[in-house]
Amino acid sequence: MSSPKIKKIAPLGFPWETQDPFLFCVHHEDFYPKGNEAMGPAVSLSGRALGNDFTIRDGFRMYHGQTVPGFPAHPHRGFETVTIARKGFVDHSDSLGAAGRFGAGDVQWMTAGKGVQHCEMFPLVNKEADNPFEIFQIWLNLPRASKLVEPHFAMLWADTIPTYVHHDAQGLATEVKVIAGKIGEVQAPAPAPNSWAANPANEVGIWTIQMAPNARWTLPLAAKETNRSLYFFKGGTLQVAGQPLALNHTAQVFAHEEVELVNGPEPSQLLLLQGKPLQEPVVQYGPFVMNTREEIQQAMHEFQRTEFGGWPWPSYAHVHPREKGRFARYADGTVVEKK
């Protein structure tokens, strides 16, 4: 049965399918064991394709890490990365000299702009117990006018990200972490200054949704031209606008229509991404996203010549000391420490 309120339903792939203004979305969940002295897995890595290990084995991947899981130094240009760290920790280091360790619901928002290198490593800081890990990484496009802005790095700490709570007629709760955008009077922290999300008229929303068993919630309305995608990644059964949405599927819905979510007998979790489209040409070559092939070639040549500022850290897979807590060190030298 089709619904006039739903554009499309599709299974979640790797990465997840996105709509303009988003370019990319991936959900990483790994069940890492205890950490060793180097903050890597305290188990044998024999048989893994280290440096390119995207196969789940013993419950976890190493990604491009050879000792510590993660993504050693790599460049970006022309878009933004939004990393939501739900479990475990991410160690960030970049070519601007900025750095940080974040987790427990923190979000890193990085505008690559004209070019930056960074590494994102997943240190297993706990030597006495397992190190469960879960993040979303989302790529948000930059408009042509902002593709070559100065790079920007910001932390949205978990205690600054507001929660919208809805109780339905039965008193059952839906809780929404508002990372970008607004629901009613609940306003997300300010995004990066040159972001497409910085203009409220663009209706960019990044929300993580948790529904209690049998809860109901109707999505708030947005403009007709706003693209809206729902990703059902944890739970049992769910209905969207009266149509079943299977677990590990996405529904692209019309933002100007009243779309009710009706959860089944298990708790459910979803990610929502929305925004007005840029409607500009997209030419991508790996970590570079521009508007023309000539601009991609220019990006490659500039990176080969400048390395976007070089690499000021002792390793391309740099991690911070085990005892270091959550923190952010910005390019201007400002340091913020969190408990």
Automatic annotation (TrEMBL):
Q: Which domain of life is it from?
A: Bacteria
Identify the Gene3D superfamilies for this entry.
Jelly Rolls
SUPFAM superfamilies linked to this entry:
RmlC-like cupins
Pfam families, alphabetized:
Pirin (PF02678), Pirin_C (PF05726)
Q: Per the database record, which ranges form the Pirin N-terminal domain?
A: 53-140
Domain spans labelled Pirin C-terminal: 207-309
Q: Which family does it belong to?
A: Belongs to the pirin family.
**The protein, known as:** Pirin family protein
Its organism's taxonomic lineage begins at: Bacteria, Pseudomonadati, Bacteroidota, Cytophagia, Cytophagales
